[in-house]
Amino acid sequence: MASQPSHSYLLADVHLQPDTHHPINQAFIKFINQQAQQADSVYILGDLFETWVGDDLSIPIYQLEINALKALTKAGTKLYIGYGNRDFLMRQAFWQATGAEFIEDECVTQIQGVDCLLLHGDSLCTDDKDYQRMRKWFRKSWVQWLFLHLPKKTRLKIAQKLRQESGKHAQYKQADIMDVSIQAVETLYARHPQIEHVIHGHTHRPAHHHFMLNGVEKQRWVLGDWRPETEIIKIANQKINSIKFV
Q1: What is the pTM of this model?
Q2: Calpha distance 217→83 (Å, rounded)
Q3: DSSP string covering 31-46, please?
Q4: What is the mean pLDDT of residues 202-206?
Q5: CA distances (Å), 172 to each of 71, 165, 178, in order?
Q6: Sign (positive/negative) of CA torsion 128, 24, 67, 20?
Q7: What is the C-alpha to C-alpha distance for residues 246 and 28, in angstroms, rounded to an integer?
Q8: What confidence category does residue 49 fall into, taking pLDDT thresholds of 50, 70 and 90?
Q9: How far from the centroid of its chain's Cα atoms is residue 174's Cα?
Q10: pLDDT (tens digit, 9 = 90+) per residue, 222-246?
Q11: What is the Cα–Cα distance from 211 to 234, expressed in whole angstroms?
């Protein structure tokens, strides 16, 4: 039997629900058990979960999905996961339970011979001033420590309220404000001038952008969310392709 050619997958914004029968969860399990098993590596660039309120509460809620991730890494597929704006409270118990490796936001790495810069993408939405202020606040280590030491019921109530507020604000904001800022993208490339390919999620607007910056071609790949249809990225033979997964 011929071996599969080397390849890797990148995805984001799965937003797994606290219901194993949800179509998104079912699609994700299918992907992990089939396509991902054939890959050298899988990168999840944030918001794998709809919410994460601490390992002690969330691991039992998503136990089926976590078991699938553990089976994937045990089978030999490398799994890399970064924080999103919904699940940045994952801690050591999660990494041990899944066998995944944590990747920092704005990670420069080489995947199948392609130099890439990986990030969730919310840091690029600089026109959304309210969101950026909230993001800066919640990423403070002492704020996270305090939250994780609150009673379980309190954490669940706060998380539910934040999701509701987020949905309300999104309804009234202009769509362009919630998209990435071109200036933020250019600033990102200025910090990493050697990189051609930036890959991120967060905006739920799958796309492949080509543009010239200081006379050099740059490419920005935006991953889709899962509803459960999605666009993910496959890298093989030093080439990046956006593919649909249902």
Answers
A1: 0.92
A2: 28
A3: HHHTTGGGSSEEEEES
A4: 94
A5: 42, 11, 11
A6: positive
A7: 9
A8: very high
A9: 23
A10: 999 999 889 999 999 999 999 998 7
A11: 21
